[in-house]
Specification:
Length: 541
């Protein structure tokens, strides 16, 4: 018998449909973890040792796998193709007797399809220790942060915690809240002319031109400045078209989806919170309908791109197809595919599962279409010493906008000549007030964390959920708002452990975890140094 181990029962059922000759069983996630009621990390002879215990409710499945492994000629582990999946593979090795280890092989599968599995079976490998060490390092750092610093917060309330990424995310939310509180509204005025009979091609025949400086930048006038020029502007009856500046421009299609973009676009188009998006994506992956959904890659398999080429040419025309834009991936071992459908035919799914699948398909198709092209025309008018600017955008080629909505509005270019004069239909003095920065939504916070290099997209949803659970933040009208408790915790951490919640320091830690995954840094040395630094700071406080 050959044994194949995966994480979820849905994944197992999908595999059983097309893979014969293997006994497929689900592990239901992790088996082992650090103990709940003790630190579980020890220094012995300047070496790190960790205590792992079975997770609650896992003893039965552990015994079952031990029994099956004993009677198997081969043990294949097809857990997810990332650090966490590698750690699950390592945990399977940990629960099995030493004599069974020689049977263990790892296969990496980025989509749950027959073709992908048959290919993976030709490329069996060993468990990658560097990825395991990176995951251990992450877990140990979080345990150190939690067990060493969290108890210091208990004076504010029970069950409070600090966390490496969690506290950095809290800082970002609170600093934005302070910006909002400190914001002082300013007002200024913009001046517009409504030009009559500018273009017969326009329904109204009117065009709005804004007052600009000689560099064609919109003038934002304070009230006192407006009063100085208002009298002269009111006297203007006609303007002369001084210049027409034409420039061809492009809007490029979206890149194939990575995890953060999936969460952001699902929020934008479907109003799905990131937690819901990741739940649905997990199930779609396990059903074999999309590729792996936790990825920082924008790479699309060339075979799939060629299939999509045929689909696009048949449905939209040959002039539309283009291979996706390339983007250098951060690490070759994690540069598996972007999130895409495994096929373009509509699957037998419904409701929110279908909505998310269709969104993934739409963006994948859009990423394989040519850029949108348009002609931007700037019409510069003059009267006395005043310059006014009107802008028009004319569509040349719709490109990826054939399937993906864009915000720009396009109209035919007005047929006018330089030197022509135009009468003024109306004048508008528009008061504009500056607005405070907006609070973060869950999707925009995730984007900010990614931009800063803090944490990993696959962990962001859990980070936000922890902040809510600890009552550090609340969701108010879809925006994240810090609570009084959250602000107290942040003030304490910023006063006593400023380095540990410094955003650059947190991002640097992530870079070091990536170096461990690349086998460029010893995880023991990295974690020990962090542990000593935390203990030193605790003593100082």
């Amino acid at each position: 018998m050959k044994l194949l181990l995966v994480e979820s029962p849905i994944k197992a059922r999908t595999i059983k449909k097309f893979l014969k000759g293997y006994f497929v069983i689900a592990t239901y996630g992790h088996f082992l973890d650090l103990p709940q009621r003790e630190f579980g990390i020890y220094l012995k002879d300047n070496q790190l040792e960790a205590k792992y215990v079975p997770l609650k409710g896992k003893k039965k499945i552990i015994e079952k796998i031990k029994k099956l492994a004993k009677n198997s000629e081969e043990i294949l582990i097809a857990s997810d193709p990332d650090r966490e999946g590698e750690m699950i593979a390592y945990e399977i090795k940990m629960i099995l007797p030493q004599k069974e280890h020689k049977k263990i092989k790892r296969i990496s599968v980025h989509e749950i399809t027959q073709k992908a599995f048959l290919e993976a079976l030709k490329n069996k490998s060993e468990i990658l220790e560097s990825l395991v060490n990176a995951q251990k390092g992450r877990r140990y750092l979080d345990r150190i942060f939690g067990y060493k610093i969290s108890p210091l917060l208990w004076s504010f309330g029970k069950a409070l915690s600090a966390g490496r990424v969690q506290s950095a995310a809290l800082r970002i939310i609170i600093e934005r809240e302070k910006e909002i509180r400190d914001f002082k509204k300013e007002e200024f005025f913009e001046v517009y002319l409504i030009l009559e009979n500018f273009s017969a091609s326009r329904q109204t025949g009117h065009l709005k031109a804004v007052l600009v400086d000689k560099n064609l930048q919109t003038l934002k006038l304070k009230k006192e400045d407006l009063e100085k020029v208002k009298k002269d502007i009111l006297k203007i009856e006609k303007v002369k078209l001084e210049t027409i500046i034409d420039e061809k421009k492009k809007i490029f299609p979206p890149l194939p989806l990575d995890t953060e973009n999936l969460q952001r676009l699902a929020y934008r188009f479907l109003k799905f919170p990131p937690k819901k998006t990741m739940f649905l994506a997990q199930k779609l992956f396990e059903m074999g309908l999309i590729t792996y959904h936790r990825t920082q890659s924008h790479f699309i398999n060339k075979d799939f791109s060629l299939k999509l080429k045929k689909f696009i040419e048949e449905n939209y025309g040959k002039k539309y197809f283009s291979f996706p834009r390339s983007k250098k991936e951060k690490f070759s071992f994690e540069a598996h595919e972007a999130i895409r459908p495994t096929k373009v035919e509509k699957p037998d799914i419904y409701n929110d599962f279908l909505k998310l699948w269709q969104l993934i398909l739409m963006i994948t198709i859009a990423s394989h279409l040519k850029p949108l092209e348009y002609l931007e025309s700037k019409f510069v008018f003059k009267s006395n010493d005043f310059y006014f600017l009107a802008t028009n955008k004319e569509l040349i080629f719709d490109g990826f906008a054939k399937v993906f909505p864009v915000k720009e509005k396009f109209t035919p270019k007005p047929k006018v000549k330089k030197g022509a004069e135009f009468s003024i239909l109306d004048k508008e003095f528009k008061k504009v007030e500056t607005k405070p920065p907006a609070r973060f939504t869950e999707a925009s916070l995730i984007r900010k964390l990614k931009e800063l290099g803090i944490g990993r997209p696959s962990t962001y949803v859990q980070t936000i959920e922890t902040l809510k659970k600890r009552r550090y933040i609340i969701l108010e009208k879809k925006y994240l708002k810090p609570t009084e408790l959250g602000e107290k915790v942040y003030e304490y951490l910023s006063k006593n452990f400023p380095d540990l919640i410094d955003l650059k320091f947190t991002a640097l830690m992530e870079e070091n975890l990536d170096k461990i995954a690349q086998d460029l840094l010893d995880y023991q040395e990295f974690v020990i140094n962090f542990l000593k630094e935390v203990e030193k700071k605790i003593k100082q406080n």
